[in-house]
Amino acid sequence: MEPSEFRCKWIDKSELWSIADDVRKTYWPEGTLPINIEKIVEFRLNLLIKPKRGLFSSIDMDAYLEMDLTAIVVDYDFYMNEKFTNRLRFSFAHELGHFFLHKDVFAAFDLVDPAAWKNFILNVPENEYSNFEWQANEFAGRLLVPNSDLVNTIKQASKIIKENKLIDYLENDPDAVLSRISPMICKPFGVSADVIKRRVEREGLWPPKL
Question: Do 57 and 121 have their domain in common?
Fold first, then answer.
């Protein structure tokens, strides 16, 4: 199949969430946060992690899943720098999204190296590639941010909102209040504030009912 012929199968949001929840329960039964995604990748799924120099600069990607589904290639400089720990946690979870959702795609294309990935990205229909990546992102967010834990964290945030007399601000500009407290909300999950903002919005948890 040529990249231009690629069509991304539709996966409903509820199905994506269910798959991510099942994967978490199966491969991270500890239930502790933040989820040790590298442990899941290497020791529970037996996937190799292959650091590669210059990956991000060559194809503008932190990581990619090898076509034979045996390894995740990751940018060496990011992998060796603790500053990128949260970013790579999401990147690994994103690649696991492809692993669990898109095995048929990897069977259809010869994505053996960064050049092949770049060719795929440049030549698939834009809307199809956007959906392909959205599905992996949605899977990753739900995997790393369990709904029940997020609900409890939002309840704690609601107390802070009350204590700091931000209720009026919440009613008038909930996005601004979310931006202010999202660094606190995201800390237990080991993800970025942007990931948390997306989760609370996607799952209808914001603004909270006080």
Answer: yes
